[in-house]
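HUMAN:
Just now I want nothing more than another pair of eyes on a protein record. I would be glad if you read both lines and explained how they fit together. I have put the entry right below:
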Amino acid sequence: MVNKRYDAIVIGGGPGGYVAAIRLGQLKQQVLLVEKEHLGGVCLNWGCIPTKALVATSSLVDKIRRAKTFGITVDNLDVDLEKTQLWKQGVIRKLSSGVRSLVTSNGGEIVMGTARLIERDTIRVVKSDGAIETYIAAKAVVIATGARPIDVSGFEIDGETVLSAREATNLKRVPKELLIIGGGSIGMEMAMTYQRLGATVIVVEMMDQLLPGIDRDLVEVVGRRFMKAGGTALLSARATRCEIDRGRARVTVEDPSETRVIECDHVLVSVGFQPNSKGFGLEELGIETDEQGHLKTDRYLRTNLKTIYAIGDVSGPPYLAHKASKEGEIAAEVIAGKPAEKDWRAMPTTLFTDPEIAVVGLSEAEAKQRGLRVKIGKFPFIASGRALAIDQTEGFIKSIIDGDDGRILGVGIVGPEATDLIGEATVSIEMCAMADDIARTIHPHPTLSESLMESFKHSVGEAIHILNGR
């Protein structure tokens, strides 16, 4: 039985799907959003938002411990992680409720259930109450089904001892010993969060550096902080076996020099994600995928079946919520007949480590690999009055400049509020700005943002508060 016809149907209610639904509604398109579990998807429910809530909690604990620096004495500091989890869940509920309200207030409809394409314009939904309904999309179907953690053989998630990021954000007690397989963004965010809360943390990373893909000089600042606080990073290493005995794990780790067995009470498996592209009827319709299973799309986010669109993680990396949201807007506008396409120049990446890292544009390594004549400007936070005043002086801002014409190629920040500071750098690259444009723009004092200005001044030999190279 056909329930209703819509202009567009969006499958997946994460940061790509719900944004697409909202934008379609704004553009006066009749839209149905289908979500099988929780509105907001991975990001809102057990990824971006809950992780950052826990990061904020652990950062506050760390600041309280260091309060004596400011002449403040705090006695009997205690962390009740169960109460923290209740607060975190409240944040999630507010945001999820907001998503629902925004979709429906813009004219969209929401159905909770599991969708499957049975024709290129028809989906069948098994609703959460068990009812089965069929819906038709007159113009387009948008696939926004996201990605899921990669499974590692021998380290099957049991939700008790061996965890994925989903379970790691819901722990009711701080682990005594936490071993993390994978030193990427999620692994290191969780590592430093639970470390600040009192856990002993070991990170096993198969590459020769933590946070692979980020310039080493940025990563070294985070690595030093992690190890100074008692963390252990096993690089060029591989976890090969896990045995569980009475709720404890014994993990075998091999590196080029030795094999060791590490005991811990929790193992977090965080080695990346794979797209949710199977089980929706896409294969039967002949939709093309790459070797990893991502749906191939053109610059308008259309698959090889032009009425079926794919956005967010399911269409390929980078796996970023803001990338998915932007693609949701673009797909909606294309469906509504607006002139839109993937045309951005800058896609920022933010890591909520301690200290934070944020990058946008080309890294120094990437710029040099392209054969560009690179100029670097650096401003350390130790030279910032604002950073000194808040006692957060680790790190620096690095500007990567084309030495021939002064174009801004990229920016890397490691230090306080890096994830907020990267916004100005992103706008600069998007607008094709030159180093001089930022260097000669007046920034307020005393702020962290003026450190970005000083970094660009350094790149052109005009830094005021640090020495310029001769």
